[in-house]
Each structure stands twice: as C-alpha cells, then as structure tokens.
C-alpha cells in the first residue's frame, strides 16, 4: 500500500507553467535542464510537457546545485549513480521478497 501512497508523486500531470510557479524557475531554465538530460518530462500528443511532483523536487535540487556552481555534467553523473543505486536496492528487495515467499511456501507444505 505504501507504493500507492506515493504514486501521485510520479504522475506526470502538471504543465510547465505550473512548474514555473512552484519552482520559481523560468520555462527557459526548465527546458535547458531537459536538454542537458537532467529531467525527463512526458509529452502529450500535442507535444506539451507534463511534469510530476517528483520532477518539481528534482528541478529544485538541480537549481540549487547550479547556484552552488556545480556543472550539469556532474549533476547528471550524480543522478545516474542515484538511479543505479535505487535500481540495485529495488532488485535486492525483490529478491529478498522472493526468498521469503519461497521459504514461507516451503514451510507450509510440510
């Protein structure tokens, strides 16, 4: 149920104008971060960008790092490392759940 509680964070529902209001960033800045492959909005059939609340959080983090003088290439490397770590953790959790289920079913057959 916890994943359902956070599913709204990842739904791409906000237009760029709303994201600008929430973050204080300009459309130009947001598009630049997209060009630098730091953010990945969804596109509608008409080509409009849609963002999620987690995208807004990422944009704020990116903007803060840029203000601190960190280059976009460094930010991208950090984001990739974080994504890899999350993937590894997710895989490990899936494997543990599988092992627990196997042990549970093995024990209930006896």
From TrEMBL:
<dbReference type="InterPro" id="IPR009061">
    <property type="entry name" value="DNA-bd_dom_put_sf"/>
</dbReference>
<feature type="domain" description="HTH merR-type">
    <location>
        <begin position="13"/>
        <end position="82"/>
    </location>
</feature>
<dbReference type="GO" id="GO:0003677">
    <property type="term" value="F:DNA binding"/>
</dbReference>
<keyword id="KW-0804">Transcription</keyword>
<dbReference type="InterPro" id="IPR000551">
    <property type="entry name" value="MerR-type_HTH_dom"/>
</dbReference>
<feature type="coiled-coil region">
    <location>
        <begin position="63"/>
        <end position="90"/>
    </location>
</feature>
<protein>
    <submittedName>
        <fullName>HTH-type transcriptional regulator TnrA</fullName>
    </submittedName>
</protein>
<dbReference type="Pfam" id="PF13411">
    <property type="entry name" value="MerR_1"/>
</dbReference>
<keyword id="KW-0238">DNA-binding</keyword>
<dbReference type="GO" id="GO:0003700">
    <property type="term" value="F:DNA-binding transcription factor activity"/>
</dbReference>
<keyword id="KW-0805">Transcription regulation</keyword>
<dbReference type="InterPro" id="IPR047057">
    <property type="entry name" value="MerR_fam"/>
</dbReference>
<keyword id="KW-0175">Coiled coil</keyword>
<keyword id="KW-0678">Repressor</keyword>
């Amino acid at each position: 149920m916890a994943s359902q509680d956070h599913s709204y964070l990842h739904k791409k529902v906000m237009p760029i104008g709303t994201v600008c209001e929430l973050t204080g960033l300009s459309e130009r800045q947001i598009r630049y971060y997209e060009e630098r492959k730091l953010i990945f909005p969804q596109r509608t059939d008409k080509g409009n960008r849609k963002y999620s609340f987690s995208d807004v959080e990422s944009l704020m983090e990116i903007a803060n790092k840029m203000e601190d003088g960190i280059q976009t290439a460094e930010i991208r490397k950090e984001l990739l490392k974080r994504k890899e770590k999350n993937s590894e953790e997710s895989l490990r959790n899936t494997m543990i759940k599988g092992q627990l289920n196997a042990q549970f079913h093995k024990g209930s057959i006896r």
